[in-house]
């Protein structure tokens, strides 16, 4: 007979593999890091399989871990629905959700659609902007929950995932070593814009902004037109563009994607935050 798997252990495994970190998973789940490690060890012992490959520098799923992760999402969603049914309480209210422009071409739309189907009594309002502007809206009491990004080392928000910024575009747009980098940029204030210009300054690389657009779709169109290169998280490179791994280009730093806002601790925003944490919107 197959062993009964505790959903708590699946939730912990999902957090570890999605965040690629035991410490960030502990922060997300409100647990001690030692507890997170124990949960993963208990699940591995129960299944008789090694699920997480880890060393001093990285955390990644094993092939068996990838397989378990695929089933975990379905199990956790079913468990959440069961808990809600047994409690006899439908999640209701208004949810004012803000998302960074970075996520408009990801699976976030599917997560939001599934959320509305599961919680038909929640009035969901979506705002798309830059993280800095969304954070200001939270401070003014205009948003309940925000999915955005931050520089490494900043403290606001609950970390969801860490990723490196990369150059992307068409190979023909790559400048020669002695030429300025033609940069396609979101307008200020933009975390990505600031980090790119800092990287160019750090390496004394000339640059010029050849397109400024508040829309990711607009920047993607400019990249297809060969106007220059854009910077985006490696997992969010727009469809049709390719990562440009040129050693002569300034090396870009990592960023962290975060959830922030008072809704992290109350319904109905908490239910959406839980879904985002347990869904891989970057697939």
Top keywords for this entry?
single chain; 283 residues; alpha/beta; Arc Repressor Mutant, subunit A; D-Maltodextrin-Binding Protein, domain 2; 3 domains; 23% strand; globular
Supply the number of structural domains: 3
Principal-axis shape: globular
The number of helical runs is: 9
Q: Which CATH class of the largest domain is shown? A: Alpha Beta
Structural class: alpha/beta
| Integer-rounded radius of gyration | 20 Å
> In the CATH hierarchy, what is the superfamily of the largest domain?
Periplasmic binding protein-like II
Total DSSP E strands: 11
The termini sit apart by 33 Å
Topology as a string of helices (H) and strands (E): HHHEEHEHEHEEEHEHEEEH
Q: Show unreliable segments.
A: none
Strand % is: 15-25%
- In which range does the helix fraction lie? 25-40%
Q: CATH architecture of the largest domain, please?
A: 3-Layer(aba) Sandwich
- How is the biggest beta sheet arranged? 9 strands, mixed
Protein model, in words:
- This protein is α/β, with parallel strands linked by helices.
- The protein has 3 domains: 81 residues, Arc Repressor Mutant, subunit A, CATH 1.10.10.10; 83 residues, D-Maltodextrin-Binding Protein, domain 2 (3-Layer(aba) Sandwich), CATH 3.40.190; 94 residues, Periplasmic binding protein-like II (D-Maltodextrin-Binding Protein, domain 2), CATH 3.40.190.10.
- Helix content is 40%, strand content 23%.
- It is built from 9 helices and 11 strands.
- The strands form 2 sheets. Strands 3, 4, 5, 6, 7, 8, 9, 10 and 11 form a 9-stranded mixed β-sheet that branches. Strands 1-2 form a two-stranded antiparallel ribbon.
- A hairpin with a 4-residue loop joins strand 1 and strand 2.
- Helix 1 crosses helix 3.
- It is globular, with a radius of gyration of 20 Å.
- The model has no long low-confidence stretch (mean pLDDT 87).
